[in-house]
Design brief:
The complex is a heterodimer of chains A (about 250) and B (about 270).
Chain A lengths: L9 E10 L2 E11 L4 E5 L6 H9 L6 E6 L2 E2 L4 H5 L2 E4 L11 H11 L5 H11 L15 H13 L5 E5 L7 H18 L2 E5 L3 H7 L2 E6 L2 E6 L1 H7 L5 H9 L10
Parallel strand pairs in A: 3-8, 3-9, 6-7, 7-8
Antiparallel strand pairs in A: 1-2, 1-4, 4-5, 9-10
Chain B lengths: L13 H17 L1 H26 L3 H36 L3 H4 L6 H31 L8 H28 L6 H4 L19 H7 L3 H15 L4 H32 L8
Helix pairs in contact in B: 1-5, 2-3, 2-5, 3-5, 3-6, 3-9, 6-9, 6-10, 9-10
The chains are: A alpha/beta (about 250), B mainly alpha (about 270).
Chain lengths: ~250, ~270
Amino acid sequence: MMPDECPPAIRVHNLTKIYSLTPVVDGLSFEVPQGSITALLGGNGAGKTTTIAMLLGLLLPTSGQVALLGHDMATDRYAALAQVNFSSPYVDLPGRLTVRENLTIYARLYGLPRPAERIAEMVEDLELGAFVTRRTSRLSAGQKTRVALAKALINRPRLLILDEPTASLDPDSGDWIRGYLSRYAAETGATLFLASHNMAEVERLCSQVLMMRQGRIFDRGSVSELTERYGRTNLEDVFLDIARGQEKGGPAQ
Amino acid sequence: MSRGLVPGWSGFAWHRVGAVCLRHLYVMRSSPIRLLEMAYWPTVQMVMWGFISQFFTTQSSWLVQAAGALLAAVLLWDVLFRANLGLSLSFMEEMWARNLGHLFVSPLRPYEFIVALITMSAIRTTIGLLPAALLAIPLFHYNIFAMGLPLVGFFLLLLITGWSVGLGVSALVLRFGLGAESLAWVLIFALAPLSGIYYPISTLPGWLQTVAWWLPSSHVFEGMRVVLTTGTFDWSLWWTALVLDLGYLSLLGGLFLYTFRVARRRGLLLNVGE
């Protein structure tokens, strides 16, 4: 299949979530092309986590459609989920289980033909060897993040959705994770979609940025397009302008 | 892997059921104390009721016959109790671990999850009760296995009743959060006085008998007494209990699946935990 014949990795149309008459996500529409790395940015309460939960089918939208890799999440959810995975510091893996046990369970859930081989690959790639037999609850934040990433990559996802992949990590661990994600995307052609508060991370990794404010996409574009549009030198200043409602330029029409 | 054998169950895969079971077996393996706890209460109950029964046998010739019924009742009641607890605890384990989000972004279907919970309940119940049943043989010269095939029938029926209650409890915990977790321990006891565990249903007031006969467990304990006192197996009691069991299992399984959808609508799969 030629690349331009591929359906978008993510297609969202008029996605809305209303809680108690308050729209938390309000008519989002966007597409994420396959093979891209896209960031979803926004201040706390902008609707990023709600959007991600709806993309994954963990949360049902009030209205609107989501399709992942060409599969409608309302009617063909499981075909999509087999090719997608997810990691978030806010959703734990069972802490009583060892790293290897957790990976074994998820390898089996995804029906991998040779789970032990895949786990060995992940252990080597993500340098988990030193603590693979340790209980997950006893790991440091950096180690837990690597284990969560190993779980998220266990099925070789074509679409990887990450909620704040380097939250609460020291700069060294965060840099290591970003390097790994970048290599994974380059080597496999997978699509990465991540919500982050780390603007340096987004500048380094992402080709496209979606800026959310009050449940809507306020602006979108590449990092350079956004910085130019807002007359800023870096994405953090653009983010602050948008979050504080002090943008001098306007969103792209 | 079986695909589409049951209408609406297309895509059902045993490897995913096995994966969820494996997750709970790993937890059990990692904690010998938990295994011990599973067998502890049934054994303590059996020992206590065993001595009570022994005391009764010295007081009355009728109670000589009843002594076996008491021990059988204790063990069978625990089947019902453990089956409910085994299912509810496996479900709550996922909530305590905040693991539902990960599970349900995998291709795991909610009905596969239910089958896994039921399987774990059967394993937990067997682990919990087997030591007590075996210990009763040397301690009180009471061998519940001597009941033979009827025992298998009663065991199965009570497992199904326990699963139904466990699914109802899990649905409530999913909907109302871990604040409702104590229901796993207490709700089942509402069935105890109505099930005629230690006395015939005819002991109950007339209107309560009508309610009691709507419970599968009442038919089981009545059937157990028939086996122990006459040596015959009352198939009508067994079949009635089975029909009721399948009805409640469908109803409460349906409630769980409905609640799962409500949880997806309200975002509860991500916002659960201690």
